[in-house]
Every structure is written in structure tokens, then in C-alpha cells.
Amino acid sequence: MNGFAVINKPSGISSSDVVIKCRNALSGTIGEKIKCGHMGTLDPMASGVLIVAFGNATRLFDYLLEKTKTYRAVFVFGEERDTLDAEGVVTSSAALPEYKKLAKVIPQFIGTTSQIPPKYSAVKINGRKAYDLARAGKDFDIKAKEIYIKDIKILDKTLIDNKCESIELLVECGGGTYIRSLCRDIAYKADTLGYMASLVRTECGGYNIDEAINIQDFVDSPVQFVRPCEQLLAKIMPIVDIDGNQYKKIRNGQTVEVKLADGLYGAKLQDKLCFILKVQDNTAKSVCYLED
Prior knowledge:
- The protein is an alpha+beta fold.
- It folds into 3 domains: 3-65 and 206-233, Pseudouridine synthase, CATH 3.30.2350; 69-204, Pseudouridine synthase, CATH 3.30.2350.10; 237-289, Roll (Archaeosine Trna-guanine Transglycosylase, Chain: A, domain 4), CATH 2.30.130.10.
- Helices cover 23% and strands 39% of the residues.
- The chain has helices at residues 15-30, 61-64, 99-105, 130-135, 179-189, 215-220, 229-236, 244-251; strands at residues 3-9, 36-39, 47-54, 69-77, 79-81, 90-93, 111-115, 124-125, 128-129, 145-160, 163-173, 194-204, 207-208, 213-214, 239-241, 256-257, 263-269, 272-280, 283-289.
- Strands 1, 2, 3, 4, 7, 10, 11, 12, 13 and 14 form a 10-stranded mixed beta sheet that branches. A 5-stranded mixed beta sheet has the order 15-17-18-19-16. The chain has a two-stranded antiparallel ribbon with strand order 5-6.
- The longest helix has 16 residues, at 15-30.
- The chain is globular, with a radius of gyration of 22 Å.
């Protein structure tokens, strides 16, 4: 079975735990082991939209990474924690920032910037996950990487004598952005310290949290909640029809002439999704097979 489900991941379990539950439920129902993966990790502490793909839908992962995601996050100021979130150990403290200064700092992070991922993350350092090295007390550095933040909105704030104790933000960003690191960097820029107290992913892959289902609902009736690949692909790129002759050529690794603008397209034959095509100079070739 090929398709995907939009799950509202609860806090307290990992994204991998969700995948295992979904895979076991669907595999048990259809009577065969099925390939399964998630598209965009959420930390155990975080909740919200997690897209779980089955079968050939897992091949869409790299293309989904191009889509922006939206998060609702609460940042608390005045102290820093080793994990950069509420589950960590307090490592240092500082005075609360002036709200006016904080409000001026936040927009500076919109656009393409550089960010250092948290040491407690799955980033690989010489083949080992950073959080394993951090838990072992190893000293190491993580290289900064380029990220893109489309927008940041202030939703709420808690003030004490014009000082900001906490703030709630809505962040729309590209793949690979660590909201924990964003909290750290905003705090540093405002001459204070901070950590992420809570995180909810409200949108991912074009699906919002209102469209996501509870994990137990999926486990109870998995087939009912598996959506066809085409629905997900349509959120990412245009889908076009091809004829039988074009299908044969593409399937054999050949290119075909098309009258389409340069870019990526999903291709289907008689309502069956077949390929992802890359079009350049009116010539199309397959960059991903979506058939078995």
C-alpha cells in the first residue's frame, strides 16, 4: 500500500515511535510488512503535524523538504538550559530583556541566515549523533548551516515591569531550522538567555493541524486514514497527464518532449501516479519512480 497519513503527534514520544505504531497497525491490517517513514522530525517534547509515509510515498521525502513548516513556540527568558528546551538542565542565568528591545530583535531573523544546531540534536558528528556525544560529556563543535525563515509573528507575551518573561511566536520556516536554536539566538541578540518551553508544529507539507488525526485513531483503523500519494504530491508540485507512448519512453529512461515550463512535475497515466519529472528546455525525464 502506498500513501500517507497526517498525524497529530503528542508530546512525550519520538517521531520514530509514531512511525513504528503506524507501520505495525497498517502492516497488521493488510497482512504484509510495509515500508514506513516520517517526513520531518519532531522532538519528543514537541507535538503537532507529522506526515507519515507508506510504501512508495516515502520517496517524496526529499521533495517535501522544500516546503515551509509553521510552528507555534513559547520562549522563556532569564536562563539557558543544556538542551535549549524545558527538559534540559539549567546552565546559566541572566536578567530578563526589555520587551521593546526583543521586539526589535525578532524581525532580524527573518530571511536567509546562519544557525548552529543544538548539541542535543540528531546532527551527525564524524558519524555519531550529536546528542550521544553530548550525553557522554564529549566536547565538540557543530558547524553553522544556512536556514530560511519566511516570517515570525508575536502571538502573546508575559511582561514584568516592561521586562519580557516569556513570548509566544508563530514561525514559518524552511526545512532544517531548529526552533530551539532560534530561541537561543534571539535571546543572545537581546543580551539575555532563553530556552524553548513548548513547541507545536501547526503546518507541514501543506497540511495544518486541524487536518491531522490522533495516533490512536490511526492505530484503530489505519486503512481509513491513508491518503493517496497524489494528494501530497499536489501540495508540492503540479501534476500532469502523460500518454502511453510517453510513459513507455520515460519508463525506459528516455526523455520526452513536453510543452511545460522548467521545473518539477508529478506525472500520471490514466489516474495512476507514475513519476516525478524534471522539465528543462521542453524536455522531461524521470527523477523519481513512484510505481512498484
